[in-house]
């Protein structure tokens, strides 16, 4: 039976509840100096605010080497009552220093992903529940091909879903050609993120035809120019018959974007996005985007634990 792998253990998807399918509690990158998400009490307060708004689960897409704070996640989940799923995987090369990348290139990336999914992250015992990777701007560079090849291998070994950051929302079809076409990952095991950042309805439909999940996440200051077109993009997909492929997330990536620091943060998804989308596609579909869809997208038939 399929289960969602949370930081407190595997659960049937139906127990996930109202879920923010793409967000970050902790994140550190040389690309975002001074804006790190690394404050434990702010993360706890943000989760409590999300819980108070009706939220029950958050999928954290922060991958390997970006300050995930995996050891802190079980206690955060227990104290706030919000279920948490965390990621293995690797982001774009720009988010790492040269030394770390050289070390990773000398090892077996797929083995690292598999071990974080099945044994745990470092010595924490916390197992990842998804593999996060990233495409490039309208193309796939060598780093993207390397990480996606490892992600596909780890997927085939574990059944884990593969979640993809699309750079500025672009490159969806290149990612699908590689992951699903060349590397044999079934479309329904792939989640594409940031589609709101490149709201081309034709590309969205072509991507949806692969059977993949389309995640609309935000808002973000950097992507304000396109974020507001999200309700129309979601409606176009629903009208084309792809309503059952859609996910929603907040994608908080900087400290200032947290609701407890004065930003929209995680509660915004339930406070404003839900009502605005209800206007576009109706309450029933929006409810399913927040519950049933993440339950299916992030559930997997995990291999039995090794003794
Ligand atoms: Zn993200």
UniProtKB/TrEMBL annotation:
Cofactor needs: a divalent metal cation
Signal peptide feature range: none
Cofactor comment text: Binds 2 divalent metal cations per subunit.
Amino-acid positions noted as binding Zn(2+) 2 in the UniProt annotation, renumbered to this chain: 132, 165, 194
Gene3D superfamilies in the record: Metal-dependent hydrolases
Binding site for Zn(2+) 1: 22, 24, 132, 251
Location of N6-carboxylysine modifications: 132
GO molecular function, one term: hydrolase activity
InterPro entries referenced in this protein's UniProt entry, alphabetically: Metal_Hydrolase, Phosphotriesterase
Alphabetized UniProt keyword annotations: Hydrolase, Metal-binding
Family, per entry: Belongs to the metallo-dependent hydrolases superfamily. Phosphotriesterase family.
Protein's name according to its UniProt entry: Phosphotriesterase
UniProt source species: Streptomyces dangxiongensis
């Amino acid at each position: 039976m399929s289960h969602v792998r949370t930081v407190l253990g595997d659960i049937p998807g139906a127990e996930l509840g109202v879920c923010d399918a793409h967000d970050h509690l902790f994140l550190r990158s040389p690309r975002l100096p001074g804006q790190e998400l690394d404050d434990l009490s702010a993360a706890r307060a943000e989760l409590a605010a999300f819980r108070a708004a009706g939220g029950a689960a958050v999928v954290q897409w922060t991958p390997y080497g970006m300050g995930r704070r995996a050891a802190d996640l079980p206690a955060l989940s227990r104290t706030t009552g919000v279920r948490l799923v965390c990621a293995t995987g690797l982001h774009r090369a720009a988010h790492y220093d040269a030394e770390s990348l050289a070390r990773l290139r000398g090892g077996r990336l797929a083995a690292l992903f598999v071990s974080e999914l099945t044994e745990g992250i470092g010595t924490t015992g916390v197992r990842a529940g998804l593999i996060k990777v990233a495409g490039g701007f309208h193309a796939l560079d060598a780093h993207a091909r390397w990480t996606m090849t490892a992600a596909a291998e780890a997927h085939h070994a574990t059944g884990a879903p593969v979640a993809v950051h699309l750079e500025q929302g672009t490159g969806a079809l290149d990612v699908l050609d590689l992951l699903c076409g060349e590397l044999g990952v079934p479309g329904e095991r792939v989640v594409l993120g940031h589609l709101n950042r490149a709201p081309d309805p034709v590309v969205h439909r072509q991507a949806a035809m692969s059977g993949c999940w389309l995640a609309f996440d935000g808002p973000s200051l950097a992507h304000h120019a396109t974020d507001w077109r999200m309700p129309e993009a979601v409606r176009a997909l629903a009208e084309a018959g792809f309503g059952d492929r859609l996910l929603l997330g907040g994608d908080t990536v900087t400290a200032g974007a947290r609701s407890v620091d004065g930003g929209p943060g995680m509660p915004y998804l339930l406070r404003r996005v839900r009502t605005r989308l209800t206007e576009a596609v109706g309450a029933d579909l929006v409810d399913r985007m927040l519950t049933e869809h993440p339950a299916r997208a992030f559930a997997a038939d995990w291999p039995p634990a090794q003794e």
